[in-house]
Amino acid sequence: MPNVKPSTPTPEQIRRAPKALLHDHLDGGLRPGTIVDIARATGYDALPETDPDKLGAWFREAADSGSLERYLETFAHTCAVMQTRDALVRVAAECAQDLAADGVVYAEIRYAPEQHLERGLTLEEVVEAVNEGFREGERRAREDGHRIRVGALLTAMRHAARSQEIAELANRYRDLGVVGFDIAGAEAGYPPTRHLDAFEYLKRENNHFTIHAGEAFGLPSIWQALQWCGADRLGHGVRIIDDISSDGRGGQVKLGRLASYVRDKRVPLEMCPTSNLQTGAASSYAEHPIGLLRRLHFRVTVNTDYTSESALVRPLRGPP
Question: Which residue, among 151, 259, 263, 158, has the nearest Cα to 211 in the 3D structure?
Fold first, then answer.
């Protein structure tokens, strides 16, 4: 039979294909119109734009600016409008709907409950509101002819001191919509071992956790996340490429001991190419390590993280 080269799938075919999403942040995918509505209802007056279209454009430009300061500013605004029960329910429901419309059939969405307490909610009330929203979004998606299952990952911030508390919260709600635990925030200066008590607790409880590691920081962050903390998966892990060398001529590729361990143990890497370009962890799609890692048979997954790939309907959330 003739050797027929497969055709490149169209964007619509990619959108319709069933997908799993393992790394996405709830506060990184709000609809601009929702931000404007909640800001108006709650009296938040610090938005850079109050027209949804202009606000969506502002978010995309800030995310793609190459400035980490401007990139992080976007989340100051999204978190600011996620401080009430009704807001959290709405944001979570729309998240599930939007992902289902993009062909996602299974998603684990992470957020930090401690970032949503400014208007008096308790940690438990935050979790229950988000879980309610996810269930409502799943119901709406079914009405639209889509199927999706959404689980929550509860995140503790690396620079704070609430990881044990959040780990216990994740364990209490593990049969009520929470599927695991995570730590996020600046890697440099805040190693995962600062939260070792939380990880040891979760292991004793037979619970699961992923750790942001190897994104902005290098191999020591990955090593600690795996060998000291026992992470099930690595959030990003893109810097594992620093433990892989080649002759530069497309020939022999050599894996260091940590890279070999990650590949041989089949540790899933939650790769987020667009986010890596936005934060400077990679210089281009062509040079992003995900292609080489896949060819070397690492267990790579493709995810959104904080992205702005879909500019038509969901300006802050793109297909995985």
Answer: 158
282 and 298 in contact (C-beta within 8 Å)? no
Does residue 7 or residue 101 have the better pLDDT?
101
Domain 13-302 sits in CATH at: 3.20.20.140
Distance of alpha carbon 187 from alpha carbon 23, whole angstroms: 17
Closest CA to 158 of 88, 225, 233: 225
**pLDDT tens digits for range 267-313:** 999 999 998 998 887 889 999 999 999 999 999 999 999 753 332 22
Q: Please name the residue that has the structure tokens 């267990």.
A: 299
Per the CB < 8 A criterion, the answer to whether 202 and 170 are in contact is: yes
Q: Catalytic: which of 114, 128, 138, 215? A: 215
Dist. CA 140–CA 90, nearest whole Å: 12
Task: Kindly report the three-state secondary structure assignment for every residue of 100-152.
Answer: HHCCEEEEEEEECHHHCCCCCCCHHHHHHHHHHHHHHHHHHHHHCCCCCEEEE
The distance in angstroms from the start CA to the end CA of the chain is 34
Q: What is d(CA 270, CA 22) in angstroms, rounded to the nearest whole number?
A: 7
**Could you give the CA distance from residue 184 to residue 154 in angstroms, rounded to a whole number?**
10
Burial of 192 per CB tally in 10 Å (0-12, 13-18, 19+): buried
pTM above 0.85, yes or no: yes
> Coil, helix or strand for 78?
helix
**Domain edges within the chain:** 13-302
215 is catalytic: yes
Number of residues written out for the chain: 320
Q: Record the tokens describing residue 85, joined without a space.
A: 């029960």
Residues 151-200 pLDDT 10s: 999 999 999 999 999 999 999 999 999 999 999 998 889 999 999 999 99
Tell me if 181 sits within 8 A of 156, measured CB to CB: yes
